[in-house]
Design brief:
The structure holds 2 protein chains of 2 kinds.
Chain A (H helix, E strand, L loop, with lengths): L5 H17 L17 H4 L7 E4 L6 E4 L5 H8 L6
Antiparallel strand pairs in A: 1-2
Chain B lengths: L9 E2 L6 H4 L4 E2 L3 E6 L5 H15 L4 E5 L4 H9 L5 H6 L3 E5 L7 E3 L6 H14 L3 E5 L3 H5 L3 H18 L2 E7 L17 E10 L2 E11 L8 E7 L2 E4 L15 E2 L4 H6 L5 E2 L3 E6 L5 H14 L4 E5 L4 H9 L6 H6 L2 E5 L7 H15 L3 E5 L10 H17 L3 E7 L8 H7 L4 E10 L2 E11 L9 E6 L2 E6 L1 E3 L2 E3 L1 H80 L15
Helix pairs in contact in B: 12-13, 13-14
Amino acid sequence: MAGKTTKSVAAIKNLNKLCEEYLKGKYVIEVIDLLVQPQLAEGDQIFAIPTLVKKVPEPIRKIIGDLSNEEKVLVGLNIRPAK
Amino acid sequence: MLQPHKWLPKTLTGIAGLDEITEGGLPTGRPTLICGAAGSGKTLFSLEFIVKGALQFNEPGVFMAFEEKAEELSINVASLGFDLDTLQKKNLIKLDYVHVERSEIEETGEYDLDGLFIRLGYAIDSIGAKRVVLDTIENLFSGLSNQAILRAELRRLFQWLKDKGVTAIITGEKGDGFLTRQGLEEYVSDCVILLDHRVTNQISTRLLRIIKYRGSVHGTNEYPFLIDEEGISVLPITSLKLQHDVSSERLSSGVPSLDKMLEGKGFFRGSSILVSGTAGTGKTSLAAYFAHETCKRKERCLYFAFEESPSQIIRNMRSISINLQEYVDSGLLEFHAARPTLNGLEMHLLTIHKMVRKFKPSVIILDPITNLITVGSVSEVKGMLIRLIDFLQSAQITVMFTALSLTTVVNEQTDEGVSSLVDAWLLVRDIEFNGERNRGLYIMKSRGMGHSNQVREFVISNEGLSLVDVYLGPDGVLTGSAREAQQLMEETGVVLRTHAVSRKDREIERKRMVLQAKIESLKEEFESVQEELNKNYVEEELRKEVLEKNREQITQKRHHGNTNEPGSESSVNG
């Protein structure tokens, strides 16, 4: 994220909700504010804000947007919703 | 020529030739769009802009690559002498590779490209960059599917760049019908440059065209450029206004008898000379003589060989006692050999420009230019030569072209086309007579000086070149052995004539003596006749005198009476 914008706030909220629902106890969220640490944008190859980078398990995925489309987020995180 | 504009500030690019065409470079603080097909040189162009900016103008730059990774870029341009790693270490440039891979991305809802802005901003601020390149931002379009967001963000990006005050280059891939595939020209409209890579007749030419330059006068033609081991060189335009200084200095051609035909002084410095003739007439020899003479004066000469290899020329010239090797070794003479069909005409022109600028000769030789016709049409060659001659004249460089005439008739197209451009035209022609072939040299034209209009026989022996007066016999011009025969004959004739003359002299002398003798005898006759005449006269006088006396005597006697005196004489025969 880059500063507190509506999109970033919404994204973090949605992310927390999703992780609680599907990955309880099995996740770590790291929030990086690029306005504070701009040099990290290059290393993680960030160009869109907000971006969720799924680092583990491989492959690395970049999920961009405010994460309002839950289905797409799950696809991006490779989580199959438990039926 | 490069004056700072009062109304539009420009940034010099450092790319050879481009700054002249744009009259100052790219618009400062504005984005410029460079578009072209794949492989047309966009990345190299923009990279050179950044590197030259850092090295020559002390303007650090940021290169944001969307296609090649930073390491790949470094390797690819190392051969051009651009050491990106060192420049990065010195914080003069910053390379940032933005990885956009569709398969890795999942778009879920609203987003913006602030990440990109932040990265760019951070990179610019970290080195104080004045120049930025985004190459090629269209890759975002292939990675992200939300066109609306993308376009809005791009518009924001270019405004942001303007606000940052950096001079930016955006590259875009050429689209069908549009300048760029994604229509970037909508957003970047201050300056648009198109790069093209064309192949005609199996020869490729790279061309650059300024499509748009808001707020500035610019040339709208296509300018050829080449990419070589030093980067990009655009062919600079010479001001074809025909306004340059000329010199009155004269240069010897190296052949004293030829100089004599040119008012005894030779060619003008900075002029152009064409030597044409059929094969084997000695054009290269003349050119080599000229080169040799130039080096003797300690001036540099650049010899472009389009047919023979330099070592061949040097060896061949040794046979007429011209030693070019010593000048090559001392660095006064430089050869540059290339097959004309290797490159397009524009490339040849560009190469000549580059070498002339690097080597700074005072004389250049192009031997021969005829093969260039195979590369382009006559009008194209003429156009190229006009530009070349103009460039050389303004630099006061003398140029000698050799050209092959294909037949012995003097009005072939090449000769006609080129001969009107040059200042001096020497024609070497075969004169065939009685089974023998000799060479005659004519000075067809020589601007600005009187020249001999006599044809001279051009003799090449292993002592070198010389021009000999031809013989005008009763059958016309005689050269070679016919001339020698005629000379011999005339010599014999002269001897005979002197002999004849002396014989006649003697006869006349004799006749004179005979006549003189006659005159003498006549004179004597005349004198004797005169004497005779005189004698008669004297006799007459005497008789008269005697008669008088007698009469007197008789008279006297009568008076004295008839005295018969004894002893009186009386002449009976009175």
